[in-house]
Design goal:
single chain, mainly alpha, two-stranded antiparallel ribbon, two-stranded antiparallel sheet, 7 helices, 4 strands, 8% strand
Length: 158
């Protein structure tokens, strides 16, 4: 799995929006976070971020409100949005083989078994990213999980 800058930026932006929603003192205007504020706080080029936010909105992960008091907010609770949801929204398939989704990789002859390996890799990645929610990443102990030392307490059940 290759984590592109686009995927990394998308996750950082979603976490910042989720954190703003949990803040004891939400931003003026409610839970809406402006794109410029996201770009600045996460050191993401604004023009690049705007395209990412559009993809996240189209995927139903964010909603936006225009105007001077506008901004972005999560379309559903952070506990219902997985890392996999975000990755797929901005990058498509989780695993690619020569630039194509692992599901379409085709081999014959001595390499015929490789497709099954790539599908197993894709499944293992999906297991982790689909069970890890934004809410879990915002809680203490999520760093322990990310380092492979924590329990599954921060994972979405399912």
């Amino acid at each position: 799995m290759y984590v592109s800058a686009r995927s990394d930026y998308a996750l950082r932006a979603m976490l910042a929006v989720a954190a703003a929603a949990r803040s004891p003192r939400p931003a003026p205007g409610g839970e809406l976070v402006k794109a410029a504020a996201l770009a600045e706080s996460q050191a993401i080029p604004l023009s690049f971020l705007q395209g990412i936010l559009l993809d996240l909105r189209r995927a139903g992960l964010l909603f936006s409100h225009r105007g001077t008091d506008g901004g972005y907010a999560l379309a559903r609770p952070a506990a219902e949005i997985s890392v996999g949801d975000v990755l797929r929204a901005v990058g498509g398939s989780l695993t690619s083989v020569r630039g194509l989704p692992a599901e379409v990789a085709g081999y014959h002859g001595v390499a015929a078994g490789l497709r099954d390996v790539w599908l197993a890799v894709d499944g293992a990645i999906a297991l982790v990213v689909d069970r890890t929610t934004l809410a879990a990443l915002l809680t203490e102990g999520s760093q322990e999980y990310a380092a492979g030392q924590g329990s599954e307490a921060g994972l979405r059940s399912g």
